[in-house]
Amino acid sequence: ELAAAMAQGGTTAACRACVEVMRGAGEAMRQRLPPRMASALGREWALGFHRLLLKHLRTQVISDQGALILRHDLRCYAEAVHESLPGGNGEQVMELYGLLEELGNLYVVRPENLRPLLQEGRLARIDTTLLIPYLAQRADWREAAREQLGEELLVG
Questions:
Q1: pTM higher than 0.90 for the full model?
Q2: 30 has pLDDT over 50
Q3: Which of 99, 88, 108, 86 is nearest to 131 (CA)?
């Protein structure tokens, strides 16, 4: 999967398919709806897709190699939302997709760097206990990551 993704600009086939659909939907919204309605629909599409990605991240164990692909996919999704969907570059949508990209960084960093990552940027504004379902999807969660963060995170 990694070699195939890297050969295609670092993104997965699923990501490329989603982006293609998003671009087509965005174009159809612009052509067929009044601007205000297109913007509202595009914004709702972007928010719904964001919720879907969050749900997906809570169900997939992510290896080191998978984390690299995931980061590329998350960036690609964010760019597609901002560029393709009417209303996709609104402040709320941009903030949520920025948060999603930072969440993707949780899977890439070494376990000893998790705590600083959780204490900076957008992730610092989120109660750490809410991030545990995402952290638990790291392939190394049982061994190293959980140990580095300490048990105080797990009590809540």
A1: no
A2: yes
A3: 99
CA distance 152 to 60: 24
Confidence band for 67, pLDDT divided at 50, 70 and 90: very high
Distance (Å, whole) CA 156 – CA 38: 42
State the DSSP H helix or E strand holding residue 103, giving kind and residue range, or none if neither: helix 91-105
Rounded distance between C-alpha atoms, residue 23 and residue 85, angstroms: 7
User: Residue 91 in contact with residue 110, Cβ under 8 Å?
Assistant: no
- Greatest Cα pair distance, the chain, in angstroms, is 54
Q: List Cβ neighbours of 80 (8 Å cut-off, separation of 6 or more).
A: 18, 19, 22, 23
Q: What is the pLDDT of residues 94-137, one digit of tens each?
A: 999 999 999 999 999 998 888 888 888 899 999 988 998 999 99
Residue-wise pLDDT for 2-24, tens only, equals: 555 555 667 888 999 999 999 99
- Residues 44 and 85: beta-carbon distance below 8 Å: no
Q: Give SS3 for 136.
A: coil
Q: Express the helix, strand and coil content of the chain in percent, nearest 5 each.
A: 75, 0, 25
